[in-house]
């Protein structure tokens, strides 16, 4: 009797398997038919959307760069309007701008000039830094070149006569307060092509003098920004200067840069009336190429960001997406396999990911990879002076100053337990009893020296990496001014490049009024 029951159960299982198999065949036939129909009717539409998606990822990246440069220019302008930038103090200028060039490798040099023809130009020269100070003399100029081993340590000097006049350079724009982006042109000092971003303001002298601050960005470094390999995509990004019709091509992934291809695509785009976000295509050697061009915002109105992608890449992604299960296909396939669809829903589902934001560990790694700059500060310890091995108040105040500067500027992150080179050393030298004690100490210091009312603008996380703990304090910009309290004294800091700059009371008032945190009255 036991054997008969086994036999009946086996036949039942076989019946179920055969039924499921029949349902599966019916479901797959309908599913394949639906996708074949979609392939014939939506191919062109999908190609356009896929290309725009690829282009948007690159456009967001380059626009973020233009925005960061604009904000750095505006910060320097605020410092200039507050009298912080003195053209007679070359060492002072070196101390402000050498850290900026050292930490922002995309810049080839920085320039400070005025309407009298005076100019300060700083650039890196091998292991040294070089300043070129130009003064107008009669109908020409005298340039004084100084090589520096450190901001205040000159190595050598030489002078040279020239007809150079900074007021005739493409970046010298007198329109105060607005960031200006030059067209592609050749730099005077290096002879390399590139673009320059600049901003101007009026001094408080009588009569007032127009000052201009500018940053050179060589074409070679723009190519490093235009790197499709960052997205692991096969395509060629490029930046088009429509005013000069010149192109800066990025690094291609999957094929070599083709100058003929870019010229033909740009010509085709112009012939179509320079459409924005609308694909254009050309055929070269029996291969089809698609491109889309989008205007770069952030004030760089003469630049368009383009991305070229071969047809085979787009269609490969389309074929993958074509046979991907979705809700519409499931609803249509119910008629051919209701039971199988139910089982599929039950055991496979439609999980597309949680959509949660990046976890703290990945954010920490991203910050470290980006390096110290206007949004990131590294500190080795919370309280311990590594030289003496003892706690020091100056160690605590160092990262608290950076915290206040981020809150008063555009936000940023302080990483404690990471040395100046970006190496994770952990907060072990601080000798806290446990992690909770470490976080409590950090929060108490913030409450004491910054204020508990600003805690909503900060996220404090303890991240463990290879058995070492890093305190990560992420700051959003505060809507109200934030002061560093030290006993009865209060100090105001802002972020400029990789430095936290202390402002005087008058500079603080001017900065707050200019930034909208304090209304003039």
How is this structure best described in words?
The chain has 521 residues and is of the alpha+beta class. It folds into 2 domains: 274 residues, Beta-Lactamase; 156 residues, 2-Layer Sandwich (Methyltransferase, Cobalt-precorrin-4 Transmethylase, Domain 2), CATH 3.30.950. Helix content is 38%, strand content 28%. The strands form 5 sheets. Strands 1, 2, 3, 4, 5, 6, 7, 8 and 9 form a 9-stranded antiparallel sheet that branches. A 5-stranded antiparallel sheet has the order 11-10-14-13-12, sandwiched between helices. Helix 1 crosses helix 6. The N terminus is likely disordered.
Summarize the structure.
The protein has 521 residues and is of the alpha+beta class. The protein has helices spanning 2-81, 90-103, 219-225, 259-271, 311-322, 327-347, 360-370, 393-408, 435-449, 505-515, and strands at 109-114, 119-125, 128-137, 140-150, 153-162, 180-181, 185-186, 193-202, 210-218, 236-241, 246-249, 280-284, 287-295, 303-310, 376-379, 384-385, 390-391, 412-416, 458-465, 468-475, 484-486, 489-496, 499-503.
User: Main beta sheet: strand number and arrangement?
Assistant: 9 strands, antiparallel
CATH class of the largest domain: Alpha Beta
**Strand tally:** 23
Enter the CATH topology name of the largest domain.
Beta-Lactamase
Question: What's the CATH H-level homologous superfamily of the largest domain?
Answer: PAS domain
Computed CA radius of gyration, to the nearest angstrom: 30 Å
The geometry reads as globular
The quaternary structure here is single chain
Residues in helices, as a percent range: 25-40%
Helix-strand category: alpha+beta
Distance between the termini: 100 Å
């Amino acid at each position: 009797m036991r054997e008969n029951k086994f036999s009946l159960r086996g036949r039942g299982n076989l019946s179920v398997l055969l039924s499921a198999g029949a349902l599966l065949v019916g479901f797959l036939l309908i599913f394949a038919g639906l996708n074949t129909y979609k392939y014939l009717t939506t191919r062109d539409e999908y190609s356009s959307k896929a290309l725009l998606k690829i282009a948007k990822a690159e456009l967001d990246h380059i626009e973020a760069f233009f925005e960061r440069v604009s904000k750095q220019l505006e910060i320097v302008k605020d410092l200039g309007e507050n009298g912080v930038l003195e053209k007679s103090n070359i060492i002072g200028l070196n101390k402000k701008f050498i850290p900026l060039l050292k930490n922002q490798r995309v810049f080839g040099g920085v320039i400070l000039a005025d309407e009298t023809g005076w100019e300060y130009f700083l650039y890196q020269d091998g292991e040294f830094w070089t300043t070129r100070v130009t003064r107008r003399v009669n109908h020409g100029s005298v340039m004084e070149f100084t090589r520096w081993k450190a901001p205040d340590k000159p190595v050598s000097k030489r002078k040279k006569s020239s007809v150079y006049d900074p007021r005739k350079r493409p970046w010298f724009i007198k329109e105060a307060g607005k960031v200006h982006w030059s067209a592609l042109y050749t730099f005077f000092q290096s002879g390399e092509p590139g673009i320059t971003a600049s901003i101007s303001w009026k001094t408080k002298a009588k009569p007032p003098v127009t000052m201009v601050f500018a940053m050179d960005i060589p074409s070679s470094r723009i190519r490093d920004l235009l790197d499709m390999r960052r997205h692991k995509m096969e395509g060629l990004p490029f930046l088009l200067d429509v005013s000069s019709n010149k192109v800066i091509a990025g690094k291609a992934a999957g094929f070599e840069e083709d100058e003929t291809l870019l010229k033909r695509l740009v010509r085709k785009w112009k012939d179509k009336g320079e459409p924005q976000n609308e694909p254009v295509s050309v055929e070269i050697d029996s291969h089809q190429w698609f491109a889309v061009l989008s205007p770069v915002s952030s004030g760089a109105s003469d630049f368009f960001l383009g991305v070229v992608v071969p047809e085979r890449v787009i269609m490969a992604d389309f074929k993958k997406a074509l046979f991907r299960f979705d809700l519409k296909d499931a609803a249509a396939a119910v008629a051919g396999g209701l039971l199988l669809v139910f089982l599929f829903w039950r055991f496979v589902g439609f999980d597309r990911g949680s959509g949660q934001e990046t976890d703290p560990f990945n954010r920490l790694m991203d910050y470290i990879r980006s390096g110290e700059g206007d949004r990131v500060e590294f500190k080795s310890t919370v309280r311990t002076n590594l030289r003496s091995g003892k706690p020091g108040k100056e160690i605590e105040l160092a990262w608290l100053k950076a915290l206040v500067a981020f809150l008063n500027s555009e936000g940023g992150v302080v990483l404690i337990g990471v040395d100046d080179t970006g190496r994770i050393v952990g907060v072990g030298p601080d000798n806290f009893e446990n992690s909770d004690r470490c976080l409590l100490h950090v929060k108490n210091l913030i409450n004491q020296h910054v204020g508990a009312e600003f805690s909503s603008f900060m996220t404090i996380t303890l991240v463990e990496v290879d058995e070492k703990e890093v305190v990560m304090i992420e700051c959003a910009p505060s809507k109200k001014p934030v002061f560093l309290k030290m006993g009865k004294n209060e100090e105001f800091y802002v972020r400029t490049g990789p430095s936290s700059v202390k402002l005087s009371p008058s500079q603080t008032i001017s900065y707050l009024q200019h930034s909208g945190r304090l209304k003039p009255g």
